[in-house]
Specification:
The chain is α/β, with parallel strands linked by helices. The chain has one domain: Vaccinia Virus protein VP39 (Rossmann fold). 36% of the residues lie in helices and 25% in strands. It has eight helices and seven strands, in the order H-H-E-H-E-H-E-E-H-E-H-H-H-E-E. Helix 3 links the parallel strand 1 and strand 2. The protein starts with 19 loop residues before the first helix and ends with a strand.
């Protein structure tokens, strides 16, 4: 996902989209980090929650199952993955909203969400688009709203440094590996940006972040 008119499909190529869910499940410790991200967001009844770059909807649906009385919205620019998300929701009998749109031009009014979640999306964005996305998240969050992220982060071990070196030219993840995301999030106006967890996976190091829009 890069701009309003152009985005990167899941795994970079549309032909790989069917492999996206199995890859995350078996290689990226998806169950662990998504469960932790939802717990960190502390969802309660009545909250309006945006899953930014929802992909096939795994995080969106899990969040709704965790807190059925929250209002979940999944947004992604890719109609193919949104169709997959809608099918998964229908099969599970779960009622969420699926919207097509870009992280850099969120199709929502100011102050319309209490939480924004982002899982393995930001590393697809070039730096200017990522900063625009942070600005948009700040705009659509209500005062006191929270932004919860899991994505690539600084490598802490030799194996993770090797994987990061391989990934760096393949993804827009250089800022992630260099630990620049917190200051970029703060530049959008967020306060209390802090790291809350780390995970080493077969495809690289992940970091969890929490940011708050001042009340």
């Amino acid at each position: 996902m890069t701009t309003k008119s152009k985005y990167i499909p899941a795994l970079g190529l549309r032909a790989f989209t069917p492999l996206y869910d199995p890859l995350l499940r078996w290689v990226m410790r998806e169950e662990t980090f998504k469960r932790r991200l939802i717990a960190q967001a502390n969802l309660t009844a009545g909250l309006r929650v945006l899953d930014l770059g929802c992909g096939t909807g795994t995080l969106t649906l899990r969040a709704k199952q965790t807190q059925p009385d929250a209002n979940l919205v999944g947004l992604d620019p890719d109609p193919e993955v949104l169709a997959r998300a809608g099918l998964k929701a229908a099969q599970a009998g779960i009622d969420v909203t699926w919207d097509q749109g870009s992280a850099t031009h969120l199709p929502y009014p100011d102050r319309s969400f209490d939480r924004v979640l982002s899982s393995l999306v930001l590393h697809h964005l070039k730096r200017p688009d990522r900063q625009a996305a942070f600005d948009e998240v700040w705009r659509v969050l209500r005062p006191g709203g929270e932004f919860h992220i899991v994505d690539f982060g600084p490598p802490r071990t030799l194996p993770m440094r090797i994987i990061a070196a391989i990934l760096r030219p393949l993804e827009e993840a250089g800022d992630h590996f260099d630990g620049l995301l917190p200051r970029q999030i703060e530049a959008a106006g967020f306060s209390s940006v802090r790291e809350t967890g780390r995970f080493d996976t077969a495809l690289g190091p992940l970091v969890m972040l929490r940011a708050v829009k001042p009340g």
